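Hey, quick one: can you model this chain's 3D structure?
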Amino acid sequence: MWTKSEKREPLWLRNEKILIVDCGSTRIVLVSETGQIFECNYREKAEVAHPRLLSSLSDRKIIQIACGNHHSLALSRDGQLFTWGQNTNGQLGLGKGGPVNHPPASEVSVGIPLALIAAGGDHSFAVSLSGAVFGWGRNHAGQLGLGNTTDRFRPTLVKSLQLKKTVFISCGDEHTAILTKDGLVYTFGAGSFGQLGHNSTRNEVRPRLVAELWGEKVSQVACGSHHTVAYISSTNKIYSFGCGEQGQLGTGQNINQEVPVPLTLSAADENTLTVDKIVAGGNQTFVLISQIEELEPSVDMFPSSTGKRISSINDNLLDKWISECESEWKNINKEITKIFSSPSCLNGSFLEQSNDKHFKTTTETAGVDLSLVRLAFEKLAKNTKVLMQVESVVLNKLLPSLSGAPAGVEALRIYLIIPELFRVLKTQQSIKEVASSLAEAILRLQPSSIQILESLWSKLPIVFFRLVVTIYHFVSSRYLHRARKGSPANVDKLQNSLHVLQILYKVNSNAGNRIQENKFYIAEIGLCFQSIQQMHSLNLKLLKKQESLMILLPSLTAYPCIFDFAAKCFALKFDYLITLITAAQTHPFGENNLLVNRRNLLHDTLQYLRDNSYNHFCPLKVTFEDENGVDHGGLSQEFFSVITRELHTLEPGVFKLFEDSRLVWFIPKEHKNSDMFFLIGVLCGMALYNHCVADFHFPLALFKKLLKEKPTLEDLKELSPLEARSLQAVLDEEEDSVDSLYLDFTVQGHELVLNGKDILVTKYNRIQYVEAYVDFVFNKSVKKQFDGFMKGFVKGCPSKMWDIFLPVELMAVLNGNTKYEWEELEKNAKYKGYKPTDKNIRNFWKLFHELDEEQKKQFLAFLTASDRVPVGGMASLSITIVNREREDPDKYYPVANTCYWLLCLPNYSSVDILKEKFLHAITFYEGFGDY
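Sure thing. Here's the predicted structure for all 931 residues.
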């Protein structure tokens, strides 16, 4: 090899056989047979260039190099991309603000399994194994193909080339040409010499197909400084276009060509020789030819990359690793470390090769065959020593090195591959450590990358998705178990694991619950809350013993997917307890005592709330004027049972009653009292905060809005079935009949969209019409009313724990339910002074079960102050029947002001007398006093 000097001087590399050479304006880069890389810099009149070893890459086996004018790229066997040289336009890909000149080679973090690299004048490219094209550097003429002329300082995906199956790329000074597997050529960038082949000298900022080569399956393409050459193997023809001023086009003329021109190989007989390779230099073109073989050689997927591929996992390599050959262990260990520490190598393994599926990699398709991944790890597990080394490398090298900003979808395959390792790990500790490290890597990802990963997860076959869910459910459970038992818990690892589980839950929900929701519930959560609840509610000394657990539990509500309904209710009560303790410390003399007259209950209540002198953190204590009783829950419950009925008698009204559903919604006009909706919100929040059942007759849509979910047509079907059926009919109407309905984008004189009265509903916009209609009913028309209600609700319920519920769950907590399982009431009853077999008890339950449904609900109201069943169903109602020995039982028969959870039942020998007294009590009660 010689340098460019006045006389030819050889470049001497002792004991090194050179395999790859490339050069730019000021340097020559060489790669030896051992993968060592050498560089020699020269000026115009340098006499002898002395190659020097690039020490920063001495421990890397280099398989590809590319040189621009003043910068260089190198790809190593383990998939790492290195750059060095001038960085004036970001051509090194190291980010904006990087050094103008960067002599030592630096790694460009991409994580993509690269197949090819290329360098132009001041720009660079890389092509992935799945055909994705990334460009960076100077872009003043559009040579990056990104649709603009803005320079890029990091590898940037050329989106317009997605799914084009790019297999080769070549760069000129200011233009670029790419070749697809189907033999198509796209060019972009500077076109002033016609080098783009589009019959013009215009620049192109996006890849454009070279039409003159359409129909010809191009097999090679090469760019000089300002010209382009293409070769078609099927016809053995070469085409050139662009600058020809120095004869570099081979046409015999020194003129430019704006379209591809076929060349004639005059140096040899075209019938006996074939072209091996075309090479375009600055202003030169070379064609390497050889004798035609009888059997046509196979064409490599990536031209000119044979033997220059990054390492990947295959069956032969796995068989070698598990062969139990101790003498080869040192080399095997190195190979395992090299591949499993490289995200690029793993991301380039296990590709879906059939029908070029991996070329279809998108944000919804990973291009990886997870069945091959599973088989590979199962094979690895046959050799414990190999498996342990794989685990160690993944845990200590691979996962900590993963970038939070991967360059593209292919870099995210690693997050689908590693979970398959969990299936073969030998110990729970190993699973926990690897899962925790993987969770940290996932949570380091930028939001846009996490969004792509979520999309990939949603498309996974269920068996692979379920594995990820199962692993993070298991790991989270173990960390929580340690915390509940008082063992030191790694809170960061627990919360990372739960965070990933919550992301998986969101993916599952958006995909239509492919996995049942209860698979995300963690039983340890309920046990943790129970362990707190079993203590005396305000005994600070006892609570102190569980201080670490009490600190941890509130933070877990950031991951509601792990709470079943019962655990959420525990959490609500727990937060109520903590709120009370905090309020007692900050407002030690606060009260929330409400005195009301039954005849003016609504007026008295609204006036009390307007005075704003109460402490909304304290429990509500209700007293009815001229009635005896102490509120231990019963009076508050009765208060909410009564006031929810009276609210609908307000004049002017605040709610519209829908007759076909018996549900209410806000009236879309302002009330004469501007604070009315705020006060009703306070009442609703107070009911929830004080654990009272209060059926305001709201639809599910209200609870969706409280939890910031968007109501849909299904919610309108619940609130106004007749109205919703009309809208559904519009959606179900035959396409050609929609126009004849003569509907426009208005409702009740209100425009649903801008200029809605002038927009007719058609078969093309009817979905938009229905969505706008629903949005108007639930949002736009009542925005001010709901905003006031929401503000009041938050004040009335200072606990924020309610937002962990699903809308249907929050509705159940506040409204109660009407599922009456009366047998459960008897089953859970307790007794004082009686035994279940006593005659009086048997008579009581015999009488109770003979009552009709309405009488039983009256008894429930007599017992709990509400005829609706609270959270937990009838099983949660545990009444205590007490024997009160009296000389005159008639004086003490059950009357209205006797019971809340406690039934005082005097002994009556006759079931008929018991029935008379009992029915009298439950029919004519007026108030409740709690003993």
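One thing worth noting: The chain is about 35% helix and 15% strand.
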